[in-house]
Specification:
Layout: H1 2-7, H2 12-18, H3 25-37, E1 41-46, E2 49-54, H4 58-74, H5 78-87, H6 95-111
Antiparallel strand pairs: 1-2
Helix pairs in contact: 2-3
Length: 113
């Protein structure tokens, strides 16, 4: 999905070409078929090739995935999710990142989130 979102559309061959550790071509096609069955992508035929496109905007998909992650792994607790992100960061957060997070928290307080 990341490759399709990045380019807006992609064929199975293009997806395969851009994967860091690609499986077989038939595995990529099978994966795209499953994504289409689940409603995440659709295809259109251009000449003899199927071109796959996302069915929902990336931001909508991101929010949906985050809601699922929050519910599944953090019992719906945003606090637990943020704590896990802060504790498990591979590198220390910069002062700028921490300041931006603090600004986002203050904005959420003002907006009553």
């Amino acid at each position: 999905m990341d490759i399709i979102y990045k380019h807006g559309k992609a064929t199975a061959a293009e997806v395969l070409e851009q994967m860091p550790e690609p499986p077989s071509y038939s595995a990529v096609r099978a994966m795209l078929r499953v994504l289409e069955e689940k409603g995440h992508v659709k295809h259109k035929q251009i000449e003899k090739r199927y071109v796959f496109l996302p069915t929902v905007p990336r931001d909508s998909a991101r929010r949906s995935a985050l809601r699922h992650l929050l519910k599944t792994f953090f019992d719906g607790s945003r606090e637990k999710m943020v704590a896990a992100l802060l504790q498990d960061a591979p590198a220390k957060l910069t002062d700028e990142e921490l300041d931006r997070m603090a600004q986002l928290i203050e904005q959420a307080k003002k907006e009553g989130c």
